[in-house]
Design goal:
alpha+beta; 14 helices; binds beta-D-glucopyranose
Length: 872
C-alpha cells in the first residue's frame, strides 16, 4: 500500500448527489497517510462527461491542471458553465509534503433542472370535497404510460406542496420520508431528484403518488389546519432518456387520475388514520383496470415560488428500536421503547380480525399510575388508528406523520402483544454522526447520549424546539444556542445550508429575522424574533463558517445579514437594543431561567454587540474590509453604550444575574480590568445558590465558558457534576434519555411542571455539549483558519474526571483527544488529521512529548499521532 490515499469525495457536502441546482458546486476530499506531518502540496481535478472520459489524457469537461494549494475542502468546480441535467464525473489527484502522489476513485454530481423554464409539469391534486378546514382522505394519483424505445436513464424530478410518496411500477422511488420538507412555502420549495432507471420497463409503466397534508395544509403549531394552503399539490416530471438522445417526458398534468386511498386522515401533529378496507390493490401497478372509475385530477395555477433542487439530505429512517418492556394498565398495553425517540412505529399484527381497529397513542413519560402522561402534548394528538385487513400477518407504518415518544399505548388489539408488534423507527435528516465523547462517569456519558438524541429528535428537516407537542417549530433562539454542539455531534453543514436559506426567506421587509423559521403566524409582530432569537440569522452562518470553512454560506447570507444589522441600528438610536424606555416587543428574555431575571434590553444590547463582532469577522473572511471596519467601529460604540448602561454605577445591572455576567464575559463587553469583578459576581451568585445555575436558554449555553475563561474551572466542573436541580445532570438522575425543556420538568417536590411548556425532548440545554468537546476534550476550531484546518487543542482536565476520550470527524479526517489523570500525571493522546495543523496546549507543568521537554507546554504540530505527558 502506498502511504498516501485520497478518498471520501463529496460535492455540496453530499456523496454523488443528483439534482443539485448550484452553479459552481463545491468539492471536498480527504487525505489519508501513515506518515506524520502530511499536507497536500498540489491537487489536480479532472472532470468528464462519462466515467471512462476520466481515463483520457485530455478529459472533455475540465482539467484544473496541477494547482499548488493545500485546499481540499470547499474547492469550487471550475469547468465550463453547467447545463441543466448535466452529470459531471470527477476525480482528484493529490501530491503531499512527502513527495507521495495519490489518485482518487471517480465520483460524480448531477445538476438538476436549474430553472423554472425546464419544468413542463403542472401542479395537480384532488378535487376538494367536503367542508374546508376538515380533513380529507389522502388521494392516490396515477398515470399509466408506455415506453417503447430502449432506455438509457430515467430521472424523476418531484415535489409537492404538502407531502408526497411516489412509486414507479409499485416500487418506491426512494427511502426518503416527509419529502419535500418544510421551507418558506410562500417563497421557495425544494424538489427531489431520483434515479428511477432500474424501475422503468418496456411497455406499460405506472407512476403512482400519494399526497399528505404535511406542514402545508395540516396543523402547524397551535394554528388551525390549512395555514398555507387548502390541499396538497403535486409536481412531477419523469424524464426518460433514450439511446438516440431523445426524451420521453411524463409530466403531472390533467391526464392523471385520482381516487381517495386508505389514509383517511393524516397530520404531522395529530397522527394518521388508515383503513385497509379502502386500499386499492394494484393501483400503482401496470394492468390496473379499475381506474376507469377514477376522476381526473384538478390542475392548479402555477404558484409564484422558486423551485430549487434539494439542499442537504432529506429525512430518512435511521435506526430501529425494539421495546424494552410491555406493561398492562387498566387493561391497556403500554409498550416502553426504552428511549425517548422521534419517528414512528412499525406495527406488525398477527391474526387480527378483519375490520378490527387498533389505536396507538404516544407519550414521552408516564403518570405515577403507569398511564400515559399526555397533557404536555397540548393539542397534538399523536395518534395512529389502523383498521385491519384480517390477514395472518399485516404490517403497517404511518406515512405522513411522526411522533415524539417513549411509550406507546395499544388499544383494540386482540390477545397478547407480540415481541414484534411494535418497532420504533427513528427518523431525522440525513447527517453523519461526527462526534464521540466518553468518560468514566456514567452520568456524563448519559448526558452526552441525551444531547445526541435531543439532536436526532429535533433535526427532522429543520431544527425544531421539540418533536411532540403542537409546536415543533424552527425556533431561532434554540437553534443558535445549540448549533455549535450540533456541529460536533453530527455533520450539520448541509442541514444548516438548507435551513439558513429558509431563515433568509422568512426575513421581514424591514430586515428583521423572525422568532422561528419558516414563520407560520397570522401575527405580523412575530416577524421580529427579538434578542437571542432573531440573532440566529447571524450566529448560525458564523458557526457554519467556523466549523466547515463555509465561505459561501457567509457570502450568500451576507446581504440579508447586513439588512438585519441595519434593522437593529435603525431601531436603537441610543444603541440600546429593545430599550425598556421605548416600549414595544422586547423578546423572550433569558427564557426559562430559574428564580432570576436578566433585563431584556441588557440581553438585546449584548447580542447586538455580539452580532456586530461576528459580522465584522465574517466581512473580513470574504474580503469586505471596509465593512469589517464599519462593523468593528459600530461594535465598539454598542459596547460602550452597554458598559455605560449596564455596568456602571453603584450596583451595575449586569451583575445582578448569572446571565448578565455570562453575556458580559463571553461577548467581551467589559474592559479587561473589570473581568474579574464580573466573574466574581457570577461565582458568588452560583455559590449563594448552593453551587447551582439559574441561567435559562440564553445564559446557560455560555455559562461554563464564562467561568473557564476567567479562571473558575473548578466552579464550571462543579456545575457540570451537580446532580440536584437546576443542573444538567438532574434530569439524567431521573432516567432521562433526552434533554428536557426545563431544568425542573419534573421534580420530587412538585411533580410535572407547567404542562403547557414541559417537553422532555428539547435540545437547547444540551448546549453544554460544546463545552464538553471544546474545553474538557479540548478540540476547537480557529476562526482565522476555520473548518479545523488549524485545530486548537487545549483540554482543561478537572472535576475529578480520571479519563476522557473524544473524537471529531472533520472535513479533513479524524481529530482525537484522549486523556487520563492519575497520581499527579497527565497523559494525553492526540491525533491530528492530514492536511491540517494544530496548536497544542498541554495543561499542567513539566510538559513532554516522547520524553522531550516542551517549553511553555505549547507547540505546533502537523498531522499524526502524539503522546504528551505533564504533571498536574
Ligand atoms: C419553544 C421554545 C422557544 C420559545 C420562545 C417555546 O414555546 O418551545 O423552545 O424558544 O417558545 O420563548
Amino acid at each position: 500500500m502506498t502511504s498516501l490515499s485520497v478518498h471520501t469525495l463529496r460535492c455540496e457536502y453530499r456523496t454523488n448527489p443528483i439534482g443539485i441546482d448550484v452553479e459552481k458546486p463545491r468539492l471536498f476530499w480527504k487525505l489519508e497517510s501513515r506518515l506524520q506531518d502530511v499536507f497536500q502540496t498540489d491537487y489536480r481535478i479532472t472532470a468528464a462527461l462519462s466515467e471512462e472520459g476520466l481515463e483520457s489524457e485530455a478529459p472533455d469537461l475540465w482539467d484544473s491542471g496541477k494547482v499548488s494549494s493545500d485546499q481540499s475542502v470547499q474547492v469550487e468546480y471550475g469547468g465550463p458553465k453547467l447545463a441543466p441535467r448535466q452529470r459531471v464525473w470527477w476525480r482528484v489527484e493529490v501530491w503531499d509534503s512527502h513527495g507521495k502522489r495519490a489518485l482518487s476513485r471517480p465520483a460524480y454530481f448531477e445538476i438538476g433542472l436549474m430553472n423554472t423554464a425546464e419544468w413542463q409539469a403542472e401542479w395537480i391534486g384532488s378535487w376538494q370535497f367536503g367542508a374546508p378546514k376538515t380533513q380529507a382522505p389522502s388521494h392516490l394519483l396515477r398515470k399509466s404510460f408506455n415506453v417503447d424505445q430502449p432506455v438509457v436513464q430515467a430521472r424523476l424530478y418531484i415535489t409537492s406542496l404538502g407531502l408526497y410518496e411516489c412509486t414507479v411500477n409499485g416500487k418506491p422511488v426512494s427511502e426518503d420520508c416527509l419529502t419535500p420538507g418544510w421551507t418558506e412555502y410562500r417563497k421557495r420549495i425544494l424538489y427531489q431528484t431520483y434515479d428511477v432507471t432500474p424501475h422503468i420497463s418496456q411497455g406499460e409503466n405506472v407512476l403512482g403518488a400519494m399526497l399528505g397534508d404535511g406542514w402545508y395544509c395540516g396543523h402547524v403549531s397551535w394554528l388551525p389546519r390549512q395555514f398555507f394552503g387548502d390541499r396538497p399539490k403535486l409536481l412531477a416530471q419523469l424524464e426518460i432518456l433514450h439511446t438516440d438522445g431523445s426524451y420521453t417526458r411524463i409530466c403531472s398534468d390533467g391526464s392523471w387520475t385520482c381516487h381517495p386511498g386508505p389514509i383517511l386522515e393524516n397530520d404531522i401533529l395529530m397522527g394518521e388514520t388508515y383503513d385497509s378496507a379502502h386500499e386499492k390493490p394494484g393501483w400503482n401497478l401496470q394492468g390496473y383496470k379499475e381506474d376507469v372509475h377514477w376522476l381526473p385530477v384538478e390542475v392548479f395555477p402555477v404558484p409564484d415560488l422558486i423551485l430549487q433542487g434539494q439542499i442537504g439530505e432529506p429525512v430518512k429512517r435511521h435506526e430501529l428500536i425494539k421495546p424494552v418492556a410491555t406493561s398492562y394498565v387498566h387493561g391497556r398495553a403500554i409498550v416502553n421503547m426504552g428511549q425517548n425517540m422521534v419517528g414512528r412505529v412499525r406495527l406488525t399484527l398477527h391474526n387480527q380480525p378483519k375490520g378490527q381497529t387498533i389505536t396507538l397513542k404516544h407519550a414521552e413519560v408516564l403518570n405515577p399510575d403507569g398511564t400515559l402522561y399526555t397533557t404536555n402534548l397540548r393539542g397534538a394528538k399523536q395518534q395512529i388508528v389502523y383498521t385491519c385487513k384480517g390477514e395472518s400477518i399485516e404490517v403497517y407504518e404511518p406515512h405522513f406523520t411522526f411522533q415524539g415518544f417513549q411509550y406507546v399505548e395499544i388499544n383494540g388489539h386482540h390477545g397478547e402483544i407480540a415481541e414484534d408488534t411494535i418497532v420504533g423507527i427513528v427518523m431525522h435528516s440525513g447527517m453523519e454522526v461526527t462526534g464521540h465523547f466518553e468518560c468514566y462517569e456514567p452520568l456524563l456519558n448519559q448526558l452526552q447520549h441525551n444531547i445526541l438524541w435531543g439532536q436526532k429528535g429535533n433535526f427532522v428537516d429543520l431544527p425544531t424546539d421539540c418533536p411532540q407537542r403542537d409546536e415543533r417549530l424552527g425556533w431561532m433562539g434554540d437553534a443558535q444556542v445549540f448549533i455549535r454542539t450540533a456541529a460536533y455531534n453530527m455533520d450539520v453543514a448541509g442541514f444548516f445550508n438548507r435551513w439558513l436559506q429558509t431563515v433568509e426567506d422568512s426575513q421581514s421587509s424591514k430586515g428583521e429575522y423572525p422568532m422561528y423559521a419558516p414563520l407560520a403566524s397570522p401575527n405580523p409582530t412575530d416577524a421580529d424574533g427579538g434578542p437571542a432569537w432573531a440573532d440566529a440569522g447571524v450566529i448560525c452562518p458564523y458557526i457554519i463558517h467556523l466549523c466547515y470553512a463555509d465561505k459561501r454560506q457567509v457570502s450568500d447570507r451576507y446581504e440579508s445579514m447586513a439588512r438585519f444589522i441595519q434593522s437593529m441600528v435603525d431601531a436603537a438610536p441610543n444603541l440600546i437594543r429593545v430599550d425598556r424606555d421605548r416600549g414595544g416587543w422586547r423578546g423572550f428574555g433569558d427564557w426559562l431561567s430559574i428564580n432570576a431575571y436578566t433585563p431584556e434590553d441588557l440581553i438585546g444590547t449584548a447580542f447586538f454587540a455580539y452580532c456586530l463582532q461576528l459580522m465584522s469577522e465574517m466581512a473580513l473572511a470574504i474580503g469586505k474590509h471596509e465593512d469589517a471596519e464599519k462593523y468593528k467601529a459600530e461594535h465598539e460604540r454598542v459596547k460602550s453604550a452597554y458598559v455605560e448602561k449596564f455596568l456602571s454605577g453603584e450596583s451595575p445591572e449586569a451583575l445582578t444575574s448569572q446571565t448578565g455576567c455570562i453575556l458580559t464575559l463571553h461577548f467581551h463587553l467589559c474592559p479587561a480590568e473589570m473581568r474579574s469583578v464580573v466573574s466574581d459576581a457570577l461565582v458568588k451568585d452560583i455559590e449563594s445558590r448552593g453551587m447551582h445555575l439559574s441561567a435559562g436558554f440564553v445564559g446557560s449555553s455560555y455559562l461554563n465558558d464564562a467561568l473557564t475563561s476567567t479562571g473558575h474551572l473548578d466552579t464550571a466542573y462543579a456545575l457540570l457534576n451537580q446532580k440536584t436541580w437546576p443542573s444538567w445532570l438532574y434530569a439524567v438522575t431521573k432516567g432521562a434519555t433526552t434533554i428536557w425543556e426545563r431544568w425542573d420538568g419534573w421534580t420530587e417536590e412538585n411533580g410535572y411542571q407547567d404542562p403547557g411548556m414541559n417537553s422532555f425532548n428539547h435540545y437547547a440545554y444540551g448546549a453544554i455539549g460544546d463545552w464538553l468537546y471544546r474545553t474538557v476534550a479540548g478540540i476547537d476550531a480557529d476562526p482565522l483558519d476555520p473548518g479545523y484546518h488549524h485545530i486548537i487543542m487545549a483540554p482543561q482536565p478537572g472535576g475529578g474526571l480520571s479519563h476522557i476520550s473524544a473524537k471529531l470527524e472533520t472535513l479533513y479526517g479524524t481529530v482525537k483527544s484522549s486523556w487520563s489523570v492519575g497520581n499527579g500525571a497527565f497523559t494525553w493522546e492526540v491525533e491530528v488529521p492530514p492536511n491540517t495543523h494544530a496548536t497544542i496546549y498541554i495543561p499542567g507543568t513539566n510538559a513532554k512529548h516522547n520524553e522531550l521537554v516542551i517549553e511553555n507546554g505549547t507547540l505546533e504540530v502537523g498531522s499524526g499521532r502524539y503522546l504528551f505527558t505533564s504533571s498536574v
